[in-house]
Specification:
Length: 529
């Protein structure tokens, strides 16, 4: 109601909308109103912002498209349409989802100032996502090396439930001459690789690998071609052969690897079964919780085995890859009890029984089960039974609202300690002659329990992913931990190799694809030649 009153106070008849489109200016810094006056050099480390000056707030353009619609409706059904042209050819056009910008901004703002590229402070904002979608949908191939003309146009659009999408006249436009230099020349003669040093249980070696290819990778990371990478470590045949750090990180830096931490929950589950605190992975949730006391009780929930939590195949209606799913992790975090959130969820009767679906809240429940059953609680037990035997002493958990170590992810440690965890699995649970983790548990973990829907020849074990790489005509199977931002611990099955990559490209769409490129085009050919 207050939005309607505000609009009435400032409103003018729709016919008074200017017929002259506003201007869009491009800048290299946020918060400035001076346009780039010369051809702009676009490199992997460039920043690019735009400011659109409009004759009226967006809501008036939307109401002009459908005068019979009330303000609340047009704000829910309409927004800006952005078009990007390269050399006068339309490359990408997108109708912005009505959720952003805010309703208040659409009602009062006549200036729209946003980042397209924010190299150092990328925040996964809607405008940055738009630029990334532009690159994926024709922009990348259009912006070849050399001179180009970039043009942006903004229009209003309205998604009428009866008449469909209706687009209005041009609101604002602007052009920017570019000199594109996004593929820098890397002089490998000037790139110096770090010499690995021994580390608390890891020996080091200069190793026999294609140093020139690794130099090319290092040079491209430093040039910003692969942004927000913080470290790379490679262990081959038990020796640390590659150890590189980027963007201010170092050997002592600890990294927030997000869902990589889920795989640690799998290891602790194996230890708890070994020590008799859990009977088996077939043990049902009814052994640990009074499930009739939670919402949406069903026998199917009560009979859910721990194995279903380990393989992301429980019947709960939770899917982190579906924004509309009631059990999506983003709905869990604001609550004051994550375990209750999960156990209150209904069963998803539409999904085929046993089908894989990424369900973070289920791993939180697994962590709570462990915390209940192991002596001293999850954190103390993991320290004594897993971390100390590996010589890992400097790490930091995140915690649930109940103060339990968070198995959803986020455990921090340095790159080489993550590498030791990977090497433990590569060696069937042995570390320096000691069987830290049962070999049988490693075998169960490294089993293709579930196909991953929508991914050809990719599978899921016990909180480890699985895929096969093609390198130099050979296939190499890897089980791996993966976390938001481009964080990985890869454990190869048919060759004694572990690769760790840490990164901070959180919520950015290029995070995982760029790591795959780094692996396929650089690291794996270099070390598997």
């Amino acid at each position: 109601m207050r939005y309607l009153l505000f609009a009435l106070c400032i409103g003018l008849p729709f016919s008074t909308l200017s017929q002259n489109p506003g201007k869009i200016i491009f800048t290299s810094q946020p918060g400035v109103n001076v346009a780039i006056s010369a051809t702009y050099l676009l490199t992997p480390k460039s920043d690019l912002f735009f400011t659109a000056h409009m004759d009226s707030p967006l809501v008036r353009y939307l109401q002009a498209l459908s005068p019979a619609m009330d303000q609340e409706t047009v704000l829910k059904q309409g927004n800006y349409q952005f078009s990007l042209y390269v050399d006068n050819r339309l490359c990408y056009q997108s109708n912005l989802h009505p959720g952003a910008p805010s309703a208040a901004a659409k009602i009062k703002d006549t200036v729209l100032s946003r980042p397209l590229i924010n190299y150092k402070a990328a925040s996964a904002s809607w405008s940055e996502y738009y630029w990334m979608r532009f690159l994926r949908n024709g922009g990348d191939s259009a912006l070849t090396e050399g001179p180009h003309l970039l043009r942006m146009e903004i229009r209003p659009y309205l998604n009428d439930p009866v008449k469909g999408i209706k687009t209005g006249a041009l609101i604002a436009s602007g052009e920017l001459p570019l000199m594109v230099d996004r593929k820098p020349f890397i002089d490998t003669a000037k790139i110096v690789l770090n010499t690995p040093a021994p580390y608390n249980g890891l020996t080091a070696s200069r190793g026999n690998f294609d140093r020139n290819t690794v130099k090319l990778l290092k040079g491209n990371i430093e040039a910003g071609v692969f942004p927000k990478i913080t470290s790379i470590a490679v262990i081959r045949k038990g020796q640390l052969i590659i150890e590189e750090y980027f963007n201010g990180s170092g050997r002592d830096s600890t990294h927030d690897v997000r869902s990589v931490g889920k795989s640690f929950a799998g290891a602790i589950t194996g230890l708890a079964i070994r020590d008799g605190y859990l009977r088996s992975t077939e043990q049902p949730l009814s052994d640990f919780y009074d499930l009739p006391a939670f919402a949406n009780y069903s026998t199917e929930k009560a009979q859910t085995p721990l194995k279903a939590l380990l393989t992301m195949s429980s019947p709960f209606d939770g899917d982190d890859n579906n924004d509309q799913s009631p059990g999506n992790e983003e709905n869990m975090y604001p609550t004051d009890n994550w375990v209750k959130f999960a156990l209150d969820l209904p069963v998803n009767t539409a999904r085929p029984a046993g089908e894989w679906h990424y369900f973070t809240a289920g791993v939180v429940v697994l962590g709570d089960v462990l915390h209940q059953r192991v002596p001293g609680g999850l954190e103390k037990y993991a320290d004594h039974q897993l971390f100390r035997p590996l010589g890992i002493t400097r790490y930091q958990w995140q915690y649930t609202p109940q103060g339990v170590a968070n198995t959803a992810g986020g455990i921090r440690m340095n790159t080489l300690d993550f590498a030791k965890f990977g090497w433990l699995y590569q060696q069937q649970g042995r570390w320096q002659g000691r069987q830290v983790l049962p070999a049988g548990w490693v075998q169960q973990t490294f089993t293709r329990h579930k196909n991953i829907p929508g991914r050809q020849e990719e599978y899921y074990g016990y909180l480890f992913w699985n895929k096969t790489f093609q390198v130099n005509g050979q296939t190499y199977e890897a089980y791996y931990c993966s976390g938001n931002g481009g964080n990985y611990i890869l454990v190869f099955r048919n060759t004694p190799l572990v690769i760790v990559i840490t990164a901070e490209a959180y919520n950015l769409p290029y995070a995982h694809p760029q790591v795959n490129t780094m692996l396929q085009q650089y690291l794996l050919p270099a070390v598997l030649r």
